[in-house]
Amino acid sequence: MGFEVTVVVVIFFISALVVGTFSYTALSASSDIVADASAEQQQIQNERLHTSINIDHSVPGTLGSTYDMTVTLTNTGSEILRFDELNVLIDGRLEPYSFSEAAALWVPEETRSLTIQGLTGAGTHRIKVVTGNGVAAYDIYLV
Q: How are the residues of the chain apportioned to helix, strand and coil, as percentages rounded to the nearest 5?
């Protein structure tokens, strides 16, 4: 009977080592994932804090029932932004835009223009320009 008890204790000991090893590996991997996500969140928050844009002018052109609008923007923050990753909303609708500059990078204190074509409707309109990291600028214009 003493030999059987020893075998059972050894089996339990080996099982505890195996389970402990797998548990440590899983907990360690989870801890690394949480640490990486926390660092990425802090980086995103830091970029947002240093991002600021300003709509200098919203000038609609007149062409009859549809019109094109030129919007002049300034990067007033300290982050380098991508000009081709902006979202432009007119009265809450996402609108495609074009720009003539060859470089997509938008450095601080640089002023650029974009054009939205084929807009309709008379009266007061609201424009919202949103950067890739979620910082927005607003303006109102009259057609």
A: 35, 40, 25
